[in-house]
Amino acid sequence: MLNVTELRAGIAFEEDGQLYKVLSYDHIKMGRGSASIRVKVKNLRTGAVTEKSFINGAKVNDASLLRKKYQYLYKDAENAFFMDEVSYEQIPVSLKGLGDDSNYLKEGISVYLLFVEDEALTLELPPKMEFTIAETGPDLRGNSATNIFKEAILENGLSVRVPLFMKAGERVIIDTRTGQYSERAK
After folding, report:
1. Backbone angles phi, psi at 183, to 5 degrees
2. What was the pLDDT predicted at 173?
3. Whole-Å CA distances, 23 to 65, 113, 155, 176, 181
4. Contact 113/67 with Cβ under 8 angstroms?
5. CB atoms inside a 10 Å sphere around CB 40
6. How far apart are CA 162 and CA 56, in angstroms?
7. Is 51 in a helix, a strand, or coil?
8. Which domains does the chain have, with CATH numbers?
9. Measured between alpha carbons, how far is 176 from 102 in angstroms, rounded to an integer?
10. Which strands form 171-175's sheet, in the order they lie side by side?
């Protein structure tokens, strides 16, 4: 059993026969009453994202997921294909189950796939990944006293807000957990 206060982004748990992966966690304390825990979760089988609330002190079943390292190869309309780095066996994983994580896949990267009874349900991306800016708005000058951002399109098609000084062709590091700009690549 896992206490709900231990739920953090990336942790998997089981409730009512369904497997969930935590996307975000909020601890809410209102006045004199007891605290409540609100988590945004993704169903690992269907890919549906929902919010769940628990009272402080509640417990959920810990999900026993097998974690194996694979290399990403390519994707088609329905599946992403991965190769076991030891046995060279290739397996497909449904894009529906991967959800938005499939947008960060780059050919040749190593990721961890999470399995339940020989069924690959989802993946664990590296927390930060490097991408090239494909296009961005014009450079603007002035108002540098605060952090000002502009829209940029990355090589994988994702739209991200980057600082004003960034130009097309430059490399940036993106936090895959939040989908936001982290820093300029060195």
Report:
1. -165, 170
2. 93
3. 17, 17, 25, 11, 18
4. yes
5. 15
6. 38
7. strand
8. 2-62 (2.30.30.30), 66-124 (2.40.50.140), 128-184 (2.40.50.140)
9. 11
10. 159-163, 149-154, 128-136, 171-175, 180-184
Helix (H) or strand (E) holding 98: helix 95-98
Is residue 122 within 8 A of residue 97, CB to CB? The reply is: yes
Are 116 and 68 in contact by the 8 Å Cβ rule? The answer is no
Sole residue written with tokens 């079943």: 61
- Please report where in the chains the tokens 């997921």 appear, as a residue: 65
Find residue 41's DSSP bridge partners. Answer: 22, 50
Instruction: List, for residues 47-96, the tens digit of each pLDDT value.
Output: 788 899 888 888 888 887 888 999 999 989 889 999 998 999 999 988 87
Model confidence at 143: pLDDT above 70: no
